[in-house]
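Recall the central idea of this unit: under ordinary conditions, the amino acid sequence of a chain determines the structure it adopts. In this exercise we apply that idea directly, starting from the sequence alone.
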Amino acid sequence: MKKIGARKVGLFVGLLFLFSGAAWAQDIKIGVIQPLSGPMALLGKYSLEVSEVARLEVNSKGGILGKKVEFITVDAPDAKAAAAAAEKLCTVDKVKIIMGTYSSSLSYAATNVADKYGVVYWELGAISDDITARGFKYVFRTCPAASTYSYTAIQCMAEYLAPKMGKKPDQIKLGVVYEDSLFGTTQAKFGFEAAKKAGIIVVADIPYNAKSTDLTPVILRLKSAKPDFLLYPGYFTDQVLFIRQSKELGFDYKIALTTGGSGLKDFGKALGDDSEGVGLIGFTSMDVNPKFAKGVKEFAALHVKLLGREADGPYPLMNYMGTKVLFQAIQKGGAVEPEAVRKGALSIDIPHEGTETGGGVKFDPKTGQNQRAITPVAQWQNQQMPTVWPEKAAIAKMIFPLPTWAERKKK
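Accordingly, the structure predicted from this sequence is:
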């Protein structure tokens, strides 16, 4: 796939800022909060871009309720800025709908403000279960929650990987290693719960600080525990370091199912051949069976047409789908008023394999969580991330069990 240049992304997002504030009075105005500066800016910009693709697409087809859709975009590099952005959109711009936000910490802060004003908050990419657990009436999330990631990983281990080893789940040893912020600890917590239900034995529970520059103590503890499988939520730099030092220390495992930074193209570039076989639990990859993820080919073509490059990684597909579902909720509700949008959202009933991600859409009326959001398993293979499980979504066979580091060296 083509490389996404930060300079080109910045230029496109700059144009969005220029035009997103120029909404006509009769247009449908939607507030958008994304981290467009700071450490989360790259993926925040990607998220905004793909929502813009959906906006341009719907406007080219006549808009919604006969009106054009316009975005009022606000940068939020941190939680404090996200709360301030939501306050501005609710009180100054007086929008009835806000869309965001990529980061769970940003979304958690912004949804508090939106709830105070009775404004719809439509979450596309922040996964913390806490966002929807509060039961805010007008918060809806189209992407999977963090718990889904962990449940999927354990399900794959128990139902697919263990049988391939000729073992039952209660004969499998699992190591759980995770960065110690809300992101990692939440997924680890649900991983422990799912493993217990499946009967999988947890032999290592090891949190660490993502800013660590040496993970040798973590890896040596894991090496001593001798797990078959790893469940590993982390960020980019720490996950790259973990793989490098695992190789140096000769720590072998049959599979590592990861979430977080490992889903970025730069992960493969940083590790080269050492990324081979790393499993990814997350949003649906662009490299998925099109019979499973209906519309993925059309989206890929539209992305190239409007942005001049191929979509990269799992974030574009999820954000595009989620933005389209918001537009559908407005259309079904017949108005942009929060109660109408809520009514429209709750009426949506898309079965599994009915969207570009391969999942469906059905919102829980108590939490606003999409109960049909899915997290397929992809795997690094030859610097690509093809989907490998479930089998009906797969376009490649999973590399399993992974060869040892010594065996890789001989090749």
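Confidence is low (pLDDT under 50) at residues 1-7, 18-25.
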